[in-house]
Automatic annotation (TrEMBL):
Protein name as it appears in the record: Sortase
Keywords assigned by UniProt, alphabetized: Membrane, Signal, Transmembrane, Transmembrane helix
Domain of life the protein comes from: Bacteria
First and last residue of the signal peptide: 1-31
Membrane spanning stretches: 155-178
Amino acid sequence: MRTTQRLLRSGLTVAATAALPLVLSAPAAVAWGSGISVSTSGTSVSVTTSACPSNGSSFGNASLLSSGQTNFAQGRQMPLTGTSSNQSAAWTGVSPGTFTVIVVCQDGTTAGTQSIIVASTAASTAPATPTISTTVSPSPSRGVMGGLGGAVKDYGTATVVGGGALVVTGTVAAVWFLRRRSKPHRL
């Protein structure tokens, strides 16, 4: 009976230890999917990013695709403007509906893709609250994590490696502690 309980306890410990890194890394994997932030106000849609470097004359282009449009060239394209740390584009007079915003940098890489719903404001005088849904797209070469309110924070390789090392260290320490605790103490 004691052997069965010990095996069950160690099996649960191993399962929890194996699942811990997956649980801790899952939100970051989803969050790294988009390097852009899209917002709407009335009939205007804007996009911001910090993922597109300049070649001296251009940062790249953003495209607003309505439902039924499937590639970048079919949408309403706008050039990205701004600085090396923050680029943006905007569209006005956007009719209500579901749209996809795609940002392609001047070097041909896709900074991100997001879907957005522009609500009808004809029924009320106050602007409607937009509904934004994010779709996973190719990520930039470095990890980008979307924060609350569309804030973007870029984590370098050293930060990601350091965080991974902390997760592994914590997992090993937890396994050691639980195994040590489950062994019977002999006098």
